[in-house]
């Protein structure tokens, strides 16, 4: 994505977050440009998921500034629900709506939130199902799907709102190994299409291949960030070296 | 499986579309309004005063039900005759003696005639009419018992009827003779308790005991010739109230005394065998006979039970769901209200709540509350609190990720609740609802305490007449089981459909 525009989609400045005495994020600052694919790596408990969830306010920072799509999230006048319509999110545990079929899961938000009428939403949903390779599953109950299928449906559900930004919170961590590839393929296609993506993952191969930038979190801080070649081939930070030593040769 | 092209499953009972949800609400609201309207409309003959008179219909020969389930007895015939002569009408509300006296003092009823002894204590809260029957307190033991005198009662247990003069007398000599006491609300259960030797003696009004013994109750009166504290029965109204009713009663009483009607009534009940009133032996000693002889009474009782159950289930579910929704509100005040209401009404025993609403509340708000309404409100508050608790629990049991996913798409909290959390929560709750429906049906029996003539109260009245406790309660139990079975089958069917 060398032709990425300089347009800043996400601006984070000096954000802190604590749970009681546990200081999970310390003075985090980060800018993400349009069309950029940022992959966040780091040991569990390093704060990367909390950081991701702050970008759509599933978690609120104790202080600091977060501006998404030009909306200041700490501003009380900002309608967070409107902002969220433009930020898709994919969860580790899929979180498909159990009370709806696959097609209904994808159509629900655009129809409910008045973005599309039912016909248009359904057309869109079927296209998305085609894209994620699950067109034949439109009318089944979500509980009959495998993990990999669920996650691809979850991606389709998020995309149905036609967001500018997609957040992925360890999207393959709950999957059986043979399912991981299908989900990563969908994500890779999405990246190639120019979507702004912020991904928390342990899939280092995927990060190398797809990321414009890799950000290493440790102890609530960004210890190092840069292009994947540099981060993986020539890490400077001692903790990053140690972390890569563990995950790359596991 | 839902049809293609259809995001909203219309077939399911817990439909999620606005329109179907609205439809249910409209039906429920209409139903509720209809009920309230029917209950508040009571036809009153404007020309004649109409009084509510209460009694304890388990008190033969003074007050009981005859073989066609009509209220009869010395008291009832005196009252009926006087009302006719004095030109007033009345609605009779039978309940336990204790509840009957309280409903007069709380203003729910205008007068009471229930073989009620005139005592100084009662004079403090009631105005009595002309004393109409001389009575006294006797004590009785099981036939063949080896208890010969009050001294033999040491360490034994004495059965007493709550709130009666007999109970007061027994308590006054309890220390002296060293017996224990236990309480009952209706005479027949009490007699059976003594006959079954669970308790060893009872104290009660002499004529009542004698009448019961004459009609086959296996008890023996120990002081027939020298009743204690001999006194008089009186018709009573709340002190300082209903002067016109009391005047009418006294005038009518003087008139029936003068022309001999009074004596005829006494003779009719004390002279004749009880079977004259309680029906043929065959109607009272076989299951089929009892069922046939009382079929219309059982049907009426069953209908009241069903009415209470159905209205109770529907309205308590609506109220419970409201409480449950309030319980998961983002507003802490609304949540607090829900928690408090659930805490209070789940904590109160159903009977206490029923008495509070029926007997306690009217005195404060100064308006009568019909027993059925009071009973229904009791059910709604109590069962609704239980429902509210499991509804809230059901919503909270839905995986947190469902809410996060909905919020991440841009849904507000309320929309997420309505579209995603509640439909799933309600599905989780179906078994709890079914359980609560069955509990509601059973709980309606407790409302017999405030005189609602449902199935249990119907059984009480029939037993007090024919003394066939085993058979009558067996019939009542079977009716309850049949209804509960039908309710369970219906619920299972509904449950299956929501699972599909």
From TrEMBL, chain A:
Domain of life the protein comes from: Bacteria
Protein name: Amino acid ABC transporter ATP-binding protein
Organism lineage: Bacteria, Bacillati, Bacillota, Bacilli, Lactobacillales
Location of the ABC transporter domain: 10-244
Pfam family, one: ABC_tran
Gene3D superfamilies: P-loop containing nucleotide triphosphate hydrolases
Keyword Disulfide bond: no
Keywords attached to this entry: ATP-binding, Nucleotide-binding, Transport
Any one GO molecular function term: ABC-type amino acid transporter activity
């Amino acid at each position: 994505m060398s032709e990425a525009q300089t347009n800043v989609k996400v601006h984070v400045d000096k954000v802190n977050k604590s749970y009681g005495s546990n200081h999970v994020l310390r003075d985090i600052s980060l800018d993400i440009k349009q069309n950029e694919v940022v992959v966040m790596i780091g040991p569990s408990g390093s704060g990367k998921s909390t950081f991701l969830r702050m970008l759509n306010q599933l978690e609120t920072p104790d202080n600091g500034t977060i501006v998404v799509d030009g909306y200041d999230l700490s501003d009380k006048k900002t309608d967070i629900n409107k902002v969220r319509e433009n930020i898709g999110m994919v969860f580790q545990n899929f979180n498909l709506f159990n009370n709806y079929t696959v097609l209904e899961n994808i159509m629900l938000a655009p129809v409910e939130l008045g973005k599309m009428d039912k016909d248009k939403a359904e057309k869109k949903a079927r296209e998305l199902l085609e894209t994620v390779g699950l067109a034949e599953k439109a009318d089944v109950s979500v509980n009959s799907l495998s993990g990999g299928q669920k996650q691809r449906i979850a991606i389709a559900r998020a995309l149905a709102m036609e967001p500018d930004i997609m957040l992925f919170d360890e999207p393959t961590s709950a999957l059986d190994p043979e399912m991981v590839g299908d989900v990563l393929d969908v994500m890779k296609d999405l990246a190639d299409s120019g979507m702004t993506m912020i991904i928390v993952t342990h899939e280092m191969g995927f990060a190398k291949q797809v990321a414009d930038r890799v950000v290493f979190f440790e102890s609530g801080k960004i210890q190092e960030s840069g292009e994947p070649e540099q981060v993986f081939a020539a890490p400077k930070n001692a903790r990053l070296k140690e972390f890569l030593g563990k995950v790359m040769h596991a | 499986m839902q049809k293609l092209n259809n995001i909203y499953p219309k077939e399911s009972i817990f439909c999620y579309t606005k329109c179907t949800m609205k439809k249910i609400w409209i039906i429920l609201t209409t139903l509720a309004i209809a009920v309230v309207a029917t209950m508040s409309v009571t036809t009153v003959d404007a020309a004649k005063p109409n009084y509510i008179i209460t009694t304890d219909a388990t008190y033969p020969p003074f007050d009981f039900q005859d073989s066609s389930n009509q209220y009869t007895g010395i008291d009832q015939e005196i009252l009926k005759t006087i009302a006719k002569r004095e030109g007033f009408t009345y609605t009779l509300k039978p309940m336990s003696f204790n509840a009957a006296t309280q409903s007069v003092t709380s203003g729910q009823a205008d007068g009471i005639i229930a073989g009620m002894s005139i005592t100084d204590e009662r004079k403090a809260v009631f105005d009595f009419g002309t004393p109409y029957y001389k009575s006294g307190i006797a004590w009785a033991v099981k036939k063949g018992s080896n208890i010969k005198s009050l001294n033999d009662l040491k360490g034994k247990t004495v059965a007493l009827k709550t709130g009666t003069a007999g109970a007061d007398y027994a308590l006054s000599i309890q220390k002296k003779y060293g017996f224990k006491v236990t309480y009952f609300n209706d005479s027949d259960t009490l007699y059976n308790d003594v006959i079954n030797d669970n308790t060893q003696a009872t104290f009660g009004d002499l004529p009542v005991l004698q009448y019961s013994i004459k009609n086959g109750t296996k008890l023996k009166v120990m002081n027939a010739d020298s009743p204690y504290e001999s006194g008089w029965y009186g018709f009573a109204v709340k002190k300082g109230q209903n002067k016109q009713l009391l005047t009418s009663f006294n005038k009518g009483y003087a008139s029936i005394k003068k022309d001999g009607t009074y004596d005829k009534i006494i003779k009719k009940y004390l002279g004749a065998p009880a079977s004259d009133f309680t029906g043929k032996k065959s109607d009272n000693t076989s299951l089929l006979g009892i069922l046939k002889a009382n079929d219309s009474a059982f049907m009426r009782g069953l209908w009241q039970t069903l009415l209470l159950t159905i209205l109770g289930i529907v309205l308590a579910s609506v109220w419970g769901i409201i409480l449950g929704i309030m319980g998961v509100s983002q507003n802490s005040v609304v949540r607090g209200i829900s928690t408090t209401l659930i805490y209070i009404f789940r904590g109160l025993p159903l009977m206490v709540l029923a008495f509070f609403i029926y007997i306690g509340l009217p005195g404060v708000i100064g308006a009568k509350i019909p027993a059925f309404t009071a009973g229904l409100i009791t059910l709604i508050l109590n069962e609704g609190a239980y429902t509210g608790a499991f509804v809230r629990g059901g919503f909270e049991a839905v995986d947190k990720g469902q809410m996060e996913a909905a919020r991440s798409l841009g849904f507000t909290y309320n929309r997420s609740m309505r579209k995603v959390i509640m439909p799933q929560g309600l599905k989780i709750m179906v078994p709890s609802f079914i359980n609560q429906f069955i509990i509601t049906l059973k709980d309606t029996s407790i409302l017999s305490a405030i005189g609602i003539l449902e199935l249990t109260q119907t059984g009480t009245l029939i037993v007090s007449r024919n003394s066939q406790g085993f058979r009558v309660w067996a019939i009542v139990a079977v009716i309850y089981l049949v209804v509960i079975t039908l309710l369970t089958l219906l619920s299972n069917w509904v449950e299956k459909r929501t699972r599909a």
